[in-house]
Amino acid sequence: MTESPPPSLSVIIPAHNEAGRIGPCLAELFASDPVPGGAEAIVVANGCTDATLAEARAMQAAAGVWPLTVLELVEGDKTRALGAGETVARGAVLAYLDADVIVSPPLMAALAETLGGPAPAYASGRVVIPEPESRPSRLYARFYREVPFFHTGVPGCGLFALNRAGRARWGDWPGIISDDTFARLNFTPAERQLVPASYAWPVVEGWAALVRVRRRQEAGVAEIGRRFPELPANDDPRPGARAAPQGSSPPSAGLPCLCGGARACPPAPRDRLGARPVSGIFAMETPRNRRHDAQDRGRTRAGDPCAA
Q1: Taking a C-beta distance cutoff of 8 angstroms, is the pair 46, 75 a contact?
Q2: Which DSSP string do the residues of 259-270 spell out, in sequence order?
Q3: Taking the C-alpha atoms of 244, 245, 250 and 251 in order, what is their torsion angle to the nearest 10 degrees?
Q4: Residues 6+ apart with CB under 8 A from 87
Q5: Measured between alpha carbons, how far is 300 from 13 in angstroms, rounded to an integer?
Q6: What is the pLDDT of residues 255-286, one digit of tens each?
Q7: Which end of the chain lies in a sparser environment, N or C, as judged by fewer CB atoms within 10 Å?
Q8: What is this structure's pTM?
Q9: Which of 65, 76, 120 minimizes the C-alpha distance to 99?
Q10: Pick the residue with more confidence: 236 or 303?
Q11: How far is Cα 223 from Cα 250, in angstroms, rounded to an integer?
């Protein structure tokens, strides 16, 4: 039997305990406008203890013209999941999609077209933050939508894409918290392209989750600056900001920058009770929150600088 030609686009979706979210994510992906040259989807369920794997496999019947491959990894590890997806991906363009993101119909075709050239390139769409259900998350999202990061440059929160020449910038994915920041900063601002099509990227719900995400975000961006000191130089220039010294951490990409937009954004200050401000509200650090941090190591989206 002759193997079909490789598609133009491969969409890799790492999923850790995303039951109830992976189905809608795939349904909207499969409803995308046709991608010239074809497209495929690859779900990598990693460390799941819920129905994520079963829900993903159930979507194979609804995939239509999108071939769907579902892989399973025992350990919950996002960067290993990305690598596993890449081993079976055949597309000329690789898109990396969080399992709770909803794409608009024209987005996938636009990414494939934008990244069709031979020069290394990175692209993403326009981020739309849906209205959360909980009051703390609604307040957070309201502030979040005004962050300059979302209106300049290419954030890539929850979705980014590379052509093969761009992916060749590094070898295996390093074991890091902020994989999306690592990918974005491997490209200069001139190499990062924004397409006008949008996607819905939700913030996490609830006070405790917001605290955990903020703390892991700070850890993730600090790790990038420490382990890859050459990368922050590729961050977007910010109005009135001084240049960041080599080895400094890039800003907390998706969260409001509490230093007024400086490229080397310091950790948020604590008040006298040990709280950190989170988008106009204060969130206490407690032993319970610290325990959840350890549990969230496999909850990969929360480790990304854009995750919230």
Answers
A1: yes
A2: TSS-SSPPPPPP
A3: -40
A4: none
A5: 11
A6: 433 222 333 333 433 333 333 333 333 333 33
A7: N
A8: 0.81
A9: 76
A10: 236
A11: 10
> Which is it for the CA torsion 104, 115, 179, 186, positive or negative?
negative
Choose among 195, 192, 170, 169: nearest CA to 122. 192
Task: Tell how strand 9-15 and strand 39-46 pair up.
Answer: parallel
CB 2 within 8 A of CB 32: no
pLDDT at 238: 67
Place of tokens 């960067």: 79
The enclosing H or E element of 55 equals helix 52-58
Mean pLDDT value of segment 69-77: 97
Pairing between β-strand 281-284 and β-strand 102-103 as defined by DSSP bridges: unpaired
> Which residue is listed with tokens 């300059």?
148
Cα 40 to Cα 86, 96, 262, 297: the distances in Å are: 12, 12, 40, 28
Q: Which two tokens stand for residue 207?
A: 């006070």
Distance CA 208, CA 204 (A): 10
Calpha distance 300→258 (Å, rounded): 24
Strand-strand pairing, 102-103 and 192-200: antiparallel
Contacts of 86 by beta carbon, 8 Å cutoff, 6+ apart: 12, 94, 167
Number of C-beta neighbours around residue 147 at 10 A: 19
**Given phi > 0 = left and psi -120 to 50 = alpha, else beta, which region is 135?**
alpha
